[in-house]
Write a structure and sequence with these properties.
Elements (H helix, E strand, L loop, with lengths): L6 H24 L7 H23 L3 H26 L13 H7 L2 H10 L10 E2 L2 E2 H28 L2
Antiparallel strand pairs: 1-2
Helix pairs in contact: 1-2, 1-6, 2-3, 2-5, 2-6, 3-6
Main location: membrane
InterPro entries: DiS_bond_form_DsbB/BdbC (IPR003752), Disulphide_bond_form_DsbB (IPR022920), DsbB (IPR050183), DsbB-like_sf (IPR023380)
Organism: Methylomonas rapida
Length: about 170
Amino acid sequence: MLATLNTRLWFFLGFLGCCSLLGFGAFLQFVEELEPCPLCISQRLAIMATGLLFLTAAIHNRGVKIYALIGAALALVGAGISARHVWLQHLPPDQVPECSPGLEYVFQNFPLADTIKLMLTGTGECSQIEGIFLGLTIPGWTLIAFLLLATFSLGAIWLNSASKTQP
């Protein structure tokens, strides 16, 4: 099995995993009509960045260790955003930040730095829980997905070294 699984395929599978996560997010938004909050959008951007890095690594097929470390770092940034989202959802109601105007309004009327800060810190709408599956909210599952993506990315280093030691 290891002989047929090379790092190019490994990274491409990671890219497909990220595409699946983004597809599920689109399903929740457009079919289930769940409106994404600023932190949800930030998490999607982190998934997209991780996926694009995986695709680049699969195409380039060089510098496995560097791509794996950068992929893990991107996934851990996304995990940090997800962890903040989970934390906001568990705050007592009197400690939840106020809701902000919609992102479209913010993009049109606020400086880019303020918009990015809003997207990364979250607001009151980020504390709303839209659904729970097996005891976890969507941001909780996204946190797990990011941790798995980071582990998966680092697995490319192991796969690369294991394939070099095989006859």
